[in-house]
Design brief:
alpha/beta, seven-stranded parallel sheet, 7 strands, binds zinc ion
Length: 261
């Protein structure tokens, strides 16, 4: 398919930290003309509040989430009241999860914060946005124990075939980011091959992980199409189909099925 027809595709960026970018969000929104709406996840109380502010300013394009990132998990005690108070107003709980690669918070604190946010999501009937790095086994156990697989979004999914199969069995959503398009992304692509388009989402994780041909630059929502076209190559289906599926999935997860925020 040619570049001209690509320009008409619509992609939903389901994970971009516009409030942490440093560049004016309006500038990035303006450049992302093919992205009808997008999800701005919080990583702590302050950034969740900033995400909500952005959603209030751009109600037709920005959807906010509120949560505490595993890197900040040792602050759960002091932040839980603030984050909990925001949940009724946001589309999802998170970004939460476990990161045993960087271990910037103590692993015990990470689990405590993650489980508390899973419970919050259950209580408020919201989806959960999960960051999982070097923690596949424990994330799988906790999602399974709490029976929240079908409302779990595995953000920036980088699992290979074995873990992809196991999380598919729980009914999770798989959100793909730049790594599926990286030259070094072979394992991610082997995992992605197993994900049906009906369970996949696309994201940029702005400002991180820019996909080729922009690798190394600060990422932005306009480049989510490079993630979508990488998935189309993995699945050997037209990019239009990937855009249609991932957009329908994003509506179902974050908008309760509505067309627009
Ligand atoms: Zn994130």
């Amino acid at each position: 398919m040619g570049a001209a027809s690509l320009a008409f595709l619509r992609w939903i960026d389901t994970h971009c930290h516009l409030q942490l970018d440093g560049r004016p969000p309006e500038e990035l929104l303006g450049r992302a003309a093919d992205v009808p709406w997008l999800v701005v996840p919080g990583i702590d109380g302050e950034s969740s509040k900033a995400a909500i502010e952005l959603a209030r300013t751009h109600p037709e394009r920005v959807v906010a989430t509120a949560g505490l990132h595993p890197h900040e998990a040792d602050q759960w005690q002091s932040q839980q009241d603030e984050i909990t108070s925001m949940i009724p107003e946001v589309a999802a709980v998170g970004e939460t999860g476990l990161d045993f690669y960087r271990n910037l918070s103590d692993p015990v604190a990470q689990e405590l914060s993650f489980v508390a946010q899973i419970q919050l999501a259950v209580e408020h009937k919201k989806p959960i946005v999960v960051h999982c790095r070097d923690a596949f086994a424990r994330v799988h156990e906790l999602i399974s124990e709490h029976d929240v697989g079908q409302s779990t979004v595995l953000h920036c999914w980088t699992g290979g075939p074995r873990w992809t199969k196991r999380f598919l069995d729980l009914g999770c959503w798989f959100s793909f980011a730049g790594p599926v398009a990286f030259e070094t992304g072979e394992t991610v692509r082997l995992g992605a091959e197993l994900v049906p388009p009906t369970r996949a989402l696309v994201e940029t994780d702005t400002p991180y992980l820019a996909p080729p041909p922009h690798r190394g630059e600060p990422n932005e929502p306009a480049w989510v199409e490079f993630v979508g076209t990488a998935l189309a190559r993995v699945w050997s289906i037209p990019a239009e189909e990937v855009a249609e599926h991932t957009t329908a999935n994003a509506r179902s997860v974050f908008l309760g099925g509505s067309e627009q925020p």
